Amino acid sequence: MPMMWGFAFWWVFGLIGITLMVMISWTLARHLDTTHPLGATGGLNAPGGELIDPLLIVRERYAQGLISKMEFDRLVQDLLNTEPPNSR
């Protein structure tokens, strides 16, 4: 019996490890679900669920200096060409 006493509770560590993995996975899944920009329909959605205007994103990136003037003009032109008429 004294020899088994050292090995009797090792299964607890496995149970704790599995519990921690489940909790971390659940937390990551919830975090990624709320911060991912693509909604279920494939449209751009903000975390609150409202639609994001792609032109606003391009303007913000240009204002932050993340894209050049030439790239900004090209992106705006591409976005305006893909919009249906009378949408603005």
Write the topology of this structure.
Layout: H1 2-5, H2 10-35, H3 54-63, H4 69-82
Kindly list the characteristics that best describe this protein:
single chain, 88 residues, mainly alpha
Distance between the termini: 81 Å
Radius of gyration: 25 Å
Encode the helix/strand succession as letters: HHHH
Taken as a percent bin, the fraction of beta residues is: under 5%
SSE-based structural type: mainly alpha
Helix segment count?
A: 4
Residues in helix, %: 55-70%
Biggest beta sheet summary = none
Number of extended strands: 0
Low confidence ranges? 38-42
How many distinct domains?
1
Q: Quick check: average pLDDT?
A: 76
Q: What's the overall geometry? A: rod-shaped
Give an account of the 3D structure.
The chain is an all-alpha fold. The chain has one domain. The radius of gyration is 25 Å and the shape is rod-shaped. The chain has helices at 2-5, 10-35, 54-63, 69-82. It has four helices and no strands. Mean pLDDT is 76; it is low at 38-42. Helix 3 packs antiparallel against helix 4 (69-82). The longest helix has 26 residues, at 10-35.
What's this, in brief?
The protein has 88 residues and is an all-alpha fold.
